[in-house]
Amino acid sequence: MTNVKGLWAFIGALVLLLLAVTWAWYQASGKLQPAAIVGDKTISNDEYVTVLKQKFGKQVLNDMINREVVFQEAKRSGITVDQKQLEQELSQIRDSYGSRTDSEFEAALLKQAGTTVEALKQEISYQILLQTLATKDMTIKDEEVLNVYNSRSDRYTRPMQMRLGQIVVASQKEAEQVLADLKNGADFQTIAKERSIDADTAVNGGDVGWVSIKDNRLPDEAKPIVEKLEKDKYSEAIKIEDQYVIYQLIERREASQRTFEEVKDELRREIAFAQVESLDVVLERLRTSVGVQISGQMPH
What we know:
The chain is of the alpha+beta class. Helices cover 55% and strands 13% of the residues. The chain is built from twelve helices and eight strands. The strands form three sheets. The chain has a four-stranded antiparallel sheet with strand order 5-4-7-6. A hairpin with a 2-residue loop joins β6 and β7. α1 crosses α2, α2 crosses α12 and α6 packs across α11. The longest helix is centred in the first third of the chain and has 32 residues. It starts with a helix and ends in a 10-residue tail after the last helix. The relative contact order is 0.12. The N terminus is likely disordered.
């Protein structure tokens, strides 16, 4: 399963759309307040819902049906979500956002992808169950899985990561004063909150979050310096464009490799999934198995 943030932004927008349209369909009535008042024109909830249904109704309803069909068929077949795989997928997405705490991850998801952690878990679960249902009758030999694993070893390697703090100031003189205060025992986080001019990290005591040495968020000038930092130590001031940055290493995660045994079941599903027929065909077959009746249409 891919973990590209752009995909999850799309999923987040779709989830919010699902919620909005579902709410509108079930709640629209003459008892509710108008959707909006523009000058002397009132836009009623009925008008609002009608436009939503015309523009997005078919897509959203089909998506809601597909999800319900997959969850029902999985339950009927005794198929459950592998919680370890779910957490692994969620962890990779969280790392891509560089979030430091659960609340920050939730806020980043809502701001950048328009979704929540719970909605994201539901979407990951749907994708895992869909893969499993689509491939449950397929056999992929261990030898083939191992060959694919060996050819994609980089995919299962997590590089060394550093959780960094930073203090950003506008001049060399200010940077020298900050370094002097730190050497005299001043607290790094306190100085970051009070004097760092980077608004995004200053509020968190300068906490940048987890980054790897290849992370684009880490300036090239800083990489060879922070890579050598020891835990709780701070760097000299590094000139980056027209600013000066002092970094602190808060924590380090050494590079790690997911073993073949850890990923073989997940990889087997992916290989099989790449060989299945069209997803539309798979979903249509599942819809027929569960039974779906859309208002105004014959059941199928």
